[in-house]
Amino acid sequence: xxxxxxxxxxxxxxxxxxxxxxxxxxxxxxxxxxxxxxxxxxxxxxxxxxxxxxxxxxxxxxxxxxxxxxxxxxxxxxxxxxxxxxxxxxxxxxxxxxxxxxxxxxxxxxxxxxxxxxxxxxxxxxxxxxxxxxxxxxxxxxxxxxxxxxxxxxxxxxxxxxxxxxxxxxxxxxxxxxxxxxxxxxxxxxxxxxxxxxxxxxxxxxxxxxxxxxxxxxxxxxxxxxxxxxxxxxxxxxxxxxxxxxxxxxxxxxxxxxxxxxxxxxxxxxxxxxxxxxxxxxxxxxxxxxxxxxxxxxxxxxxxxxxxxxxxxxxxxxxxxxxxxxxxxxxxxxxxxxxxxxxxxxxxxxxxxxxxxxxxxxxxxxxxxxxxxxxxxxxxxxxxxxxxxxxxxxxxxxxxxxxxxxxxxxxxxxxxxxxxxxxxxxxxxxxxxxxxxxxxxxxxxxxxxxxxxxxxxxxxxxxxxxxxxxxxxxxxxxxxxxxxxxxxxxxxxxxxxxxxxxxxxxxxxxxxxxxxxxxxxxxxxxxxxxxxxxxxxxxxxxxxxxxxxxxxxxxxxxxxxxxxx
Length: 565
Ligand code: ATP
Ligand code: MG
Known about the structure:
Mean pLDDT: 95
CATH class of the largest domain: Alpha Beta
Radius of gyration: 31 Å
CATH topology of the largest domain: Rossmann fold
Structural class: alpha/beta
CATH superfamily of the largest domain: HUPs
Number of strands: 29
Low-confidence stretches: 556-565
Oligomer: single chain
Bound molecules: adenosine-5'-triphosphate, magnesium ion
């Protein structure tokens, strides 16, 4: 057990499992599963479920299976299967040889359905979808029995076999459980177990089947076949639990996992629903499932989030039964804390302003040592090139300091170039419109790694040699939505897409990064000093420049830099 697991109060699912183990239930075994439907990419909400299921298996020395819940072939794709496998691995979890598909069990599921029919607990119904709805009743009123409810076992067996053989059209017949049309729980009013779907090619079973089992029927049986002990799912399935139990109680399977519900993760300023995320992708609101603004694991990865930061986040938000919406800041803090420890420091100028150091010899170049991490010597150092012309950030110069807190460069003032020398601004060059285009400065050659004599220079700014800096594109991201809960759009008579933040992406084309960033692999993450954390994107610009995505900003930029200088 990790330190947090031993010191953190046990959440309610751990308490249930602890009690089961004390009672000797399941021979003390813990077996969980993560059951995604391959109809989209995984998002941060799924991460909560993954960390919970795989985390419990680890903690109790049990097992966790990866199982695709693939009973809905029309919406599922092999692309999603591959992406999900990749994302769960990336998060750092291992299902060993236990990768399963509900479709692996189609034959068994069929046999159990036959068993239910033989026991008089399932029947073939000819009502169409509209009629089924009418017969179902409402929360206030009981439903009515289907006129087909009392078909004989023989007739049902024959019709069900013919459904499988493809004799009926989509919607012409369904197989239903015979439970109770007056149950106060709508899920128990003779729910559909099988429906007919022609003309779809299932990503695993191809065209072998034209009838497909429903989720509520498939899920408990798949869990039982795999010997799952604790079947964890989100709260919306609470009302389905009686059906989960009914299915297992009425077939000869000899294993009855316990379904336990926990609350979904909701994250502010984004949406966590594959259906909505699919809409964003398909309607071109984002560049794809891995757009760095997406709350998908693929998007977060491309944004520079580490698996450790996401696991830490899932651990911090906890597991409860109450609905909640977590602030984006919680997720951002997790990545900040992780990257602060592990990201090498680099210098990059996002809004360049040229500085000519007039007393620095023309053509001279110095290789100066720069530590990769201010507190971690073991991370080593690299060379940064210093020359007569450098770029600094436009925001680091003002002709006149706006207030006493402004410690950067001003006309006539001095500032330290990080890892290099103190410079003084002697002259400000402007274009015809009055815009500052260049600074003329001088440097004090006695100030490399040394305080200037007889005066104080407080400010430290970053820079890049103009003749050695590498041009790069930097993408800055803001929240994808400008509403904390875009999911509530329908309550306000709107579409969730009405709340998309029009300025969630800002592209800076003319940035300069230090030479050491020229050849870095996609996915490598750095702290650009005073600017934030940035990850090398897999893409280059059309003219071949590297692209960096800002993962997250730094907080307290100034406090940190000044303390460290
Ligand atoms: P979505 O609404 O995004 O499609 P889903 O529940 O239909 O989500 P599944 O692929 O069926 O997606 O989910 C796999 C598992 O992940 C389920 O056990 C589900 O309960 C869990 N899960 C999905 N979304 C969340 C969430 N926001 N928070 C916690 N667990 C989640
Ligand atoms: Mg689902």
